[in-house]
């Protein structure tokens, strides 16, 4: 997954994440353009992989927040797709010593109250999240562990 992701949007995604640290508002979401959504989506996936490779709590927080913003903005209306993508973040959280429920609740707190924040918070409390159940496989690459969709 990591090798196929463009890097050119990372700086923009990081700026958006910094703005979101004080809360994801309608104003913030209203300023985002198509290229921002693509950058957030790729950034989230890449940072989750890097968080696993480095054991970085902060990279994982940024990855999950980018994913949350992407969904909160309505770029993907299917809650099942959010759960599929969050399964990787959940797995990485467990592997690097974070409690998924705490991490997901923290990230949900940046979002406005509503269905996406509720879903993220709830997903973090699940005890049945596995890569296999959400169509992911952990693979070893020359650069380190990575994820591959099994769909």
What is the overall pLDDT average? 90
Principal-axis shape equals: globular
Oligomeric state of shown chains: single chain
String of helices and strands: HHHHHHHEE
Overall radius of gyration: 14 Å
Strand count, sense and closure of the main sheet? 2 strands, antiparallel
Compact overview of the structure:
With 151 residues, the protein is mainly alpha-helical. It is built from seven helices and two strands.
Q: Would you give an account of this structure?
A:
This protein starts with 9 loop residues before the first helix and ends with a strand. The radius of gyration is 14 Å and the shape is globular. The model has no long low-confidence stretch (mean pLDDT 90). With 151 residues, the chain is mainly alpha-helical. Strand 1 and strand 2 form a beta hairpin. The chain has helices spanning 10-20, 26-31, 34-54, 57-72, 79-95, 100-108, 115-125; strands at residues 136-141, 144-149. It contains 7 helices and 2 strands. Helices cover 60% and strands 8% of the residues. It has a two-stranded antiparallel sheet.
